Amino acid sequence: MTRITLVLGDITAEKADAVVNAANSSLLGGGGVDGAIHRRGGPEILAACEDLRRSHYGKGLPTGRAVATTAGRLAAGHVIHTVGPVWSRDEDRSALLASCYRESLRIADELGARTVAFPAISTGIYGWPMDDGARIAVETVRGARTDVEEVRFVLFDDAAYQAFADRVRAAQH
Fold this sequence. Notes:
39% of the residues lie in helices and 19% in strands. The chain has one domain: Leucine Aminopeptidase, subunit E, domain 1. By secondary structure, the protein is of the alpha/beta class. InterPro entries: Macro_dom (IPR002589), Macro_dom-like (IPR043472).
């Protein structure tokens, strides 16, 4: 069974087999986690993403899907890019958010990764409520069939950490 750990910190500093990037569909960098990973990882990540755009993802990476690149200068072995959904009050996009976690773990398995660090996908600029984002993340990882031994949720602030801690505790009962 996959062990879930929580870290309050900066995902770009994580030493893991793979870190997950909450990417935008262009794969060419952006704000938040995406911008931080591209800045700290260096030009190798952008070059790999540009190659993906030229080959398989000319129109961009679809929401809920995932793809891996080099980690450049990061301490991780790979970056797994996934595109989370924008939260909507009028449309339930929970399945797309869950798909981000499942697809990232599937890619991690293909890479042979045993440790994977995730951000709280879609809970920043995409507006997903943190409590619900934590619920979907923890339930999806708990239910996933994967060879990943440790999923590390790397959370940027105390509120996110607490939301994930509450969900992990609830899942243990």
